[in-house]
Amino acid sequence: MNAITPARLLLIEDDQRLAVMVKAYLEKSAFVCDIAPTGEQGLAAIRQHVPSAVLLDLMLPDADGLELCKQIRAFDGEAGRVPIIMLTAKGDPLDRIVGLELGADDYLPKPFEPRELLARIKAVLRRQGTGALAEPHNASAVLHFGALSIDTDAREVRVDERLCELTTYQFDLLVALATRAGRVLSRDQIMELVRGKELDAYDRSIDVHIGRIRAAIERDIKAPARILTVRGVGYVFAKQQD
After folding, report:
1. Which one of 54, 62, 142, 233 is most buried, by most CB atoms within 10 A?
2. Could you check whether the bond before residue 6 is cis, i.e. omega within 30 degrees of 0?
3. Distance between CA atoms of 107 and 117, rounded to whole angstroms?
4. Distance (Å, rounded) from C-alpha 193 to C-alpha 176?
5. In the CATH scheme, what is the homologous superfamily, with its name and number, of domain 8-130?
6. Would you list the domain boundaries of the chain?
């Protein structure tokens, strides 16, 4: 029987004491964890070997974490889609929203419980590796809605054959909506579908991610026709689309 290769994580963190503690905890949980103390070293590490997920401190000595997140998302291919969990001591809701808008998948304020970080990493990796949303199980691997196609195996979204760039979290959120087309879903229902029951989530983060998805797949973001807002309730994915 072949051994399972452990997931490799990249922690971009300048606080050496914290970085060593987090690395030790994660490696006890069967992960491999590399540390990059600067933004420049973090970018170089991603270029050399794309990790399974990036844990990104927003306050680095040589770079702004939000700008670093933007640079990672600008990478081509797999590197540009790597899941990012932001870590910050600032706790500013605006930073969280901006980070999500720039393409981060999750956000964890310092100080944090190691068990919560571990749970969030596992949730991100489930979404990355299995999609975590294979419902209904007999669904086609490619979902078609007019000019929009969602390939759940290749994890690609296209509109008029144009590839749409989405993060792991945004792709799974889109699949959650598309596999339930025509059904109105509350924010709580969407968060439960995508993140799992074991984690809390910021209510507004769903709105931020929906905005990013709309920017990628809608022809007119000011008049969305694929993901519709149901005021006071949540969202519905339109069954009939052009």
Report:
1. 54
2. no
3. 10
4. 7
5. Response regulator (3.40.50.2300)
6. 8-130, 142-237
